[in-house]
Amino acid sequence: MKIGIVGAGLIVEVFLEAVKRIGALRPEAICVREGRMDRALELSEKYGIRTQYTDYAQMLNDPEIDFVYIALPNRLHYGYAAQALKSHVNVLVEKPAVLTAAEFKELARLAEENRLFLFECITTVHLPNFQDIKKRIGEIGPIRTVEANYTQYSSRYDQFRQGVVTNIFNPAMGGGALMDLNQYNVHFAVGMWGEPEEVCYYPNLRNGIDTSGVLVLRYRNFLCSCIGAKDSHGDSHVAIHGENGCIRVGSAPNECRFYEIKTDGGAETVNRQQQDNRLYYELCNFSDIYDRRDYEKRNLLLEHSGRVAGVLEKARQFARMSF
């Protein structure tokens, strides 16, 4: 996979560190606005990126690029992804891939129509610990309640309180706690149990944006509460309570660093992950799917991302939040 990177934010360097560990991936180019060229040159020197662009269309025409990695503000994801797919370039797009279910449906249609690969970069469902929990979930019996919490005081929240609105707290750019942190909880729940029967979101709104909030997902036989907060400090975790035991993930759901399972048979702490870069496992999976041209697995991931996009849209509709 020869990748052209779009953007130069913090997540890009995490991405490049993961790419460095995977031999089948190679960063070929980076595209930024003119004011960010110094940063692009710095990353290029550090990670061996050969070409720098300020014109996205020009990068899409680079014959050495077969994927773009889109790491821009949320509002821009759909347009950049659609342009790449229409130019017959495969797409890796940071979460959230889109802001509406209709947008995701259109991207999936373009990918299918052009026999291309479209992947949403969402760590959770690709992590070995998540997959292990999914295999073992039956050990704790019928699920009764689930609590997923991703609380992280934002480095930009103090600016926001002072009236400086950055993209992550800007409704016009698709920001807010639901679309940033809480969606990892949604990916965990939908990846584990599928689409819920009912979605209710109760946000803490400040200046038109949800700085935190509680999302309630109703499944047939249990409730799942999802807390996402960028305005406070807390203990990020996932707790799954069953009639015969419980499982607790000891970190935010975007990393799932380890989990504990307790049943009548005793307690066990498990970690199946050897890599500390949270993006490593998803990129390994994407590379494998692409190398094998496994359209069936591509479609399964697209279906999952489409379901999550629908849940997030229902949550915003319930809370009467619009972008």
CATH architecture classification name of the largest domain: 2-Layer Sandwich
Distance between the termini: 34 Å
Which consecutive residue ranges, at least 5 long each, have pLDDT under 50? none
- What structural category characterises the helix and strand content? alpha/beta
Helix content: 25-40%
Average residue pLDDT:
97
Q: What is the CATH first-level class name of the largest domain?
A: Alpha Beta
Q: Tell how many strands the DSSP assignment holds.
A: 14
Q: How many domains is the backbone divided into?
A: 2
Shape: globular
**Biggest sheet, in brief?**
8 strands, mixed
CATH superfamily of the largest domain: Dihydrodipicolinate Reductase, domain 2
Which series of helices and strands comes N to C? Answer: EHEHEHEHEHEHEHHEEEEEEEHH
Q: If you consult CATH, what is the topology of the largest domain? A: Dihydrodipicolinate Reductase, domain 2
Rg, Å, rounded: 20 Å
Strand content: 25-35%
State the helix count. Answer: 10
List keywords for this structure.
2 domains, GFO_IDH_MocA-like_dom, six-stranded parallel β-sheet, NAD(P)-bd_dom_sf, eight-stranded mixed β-sheet, Dihydrodipicolinate Reductase, domain 2, globular, nucleotide binding, 10 helices, Rossmann fold, scyllo-inositol dehydrogenase (NADP+) activity, alpha/beta, 323 residues
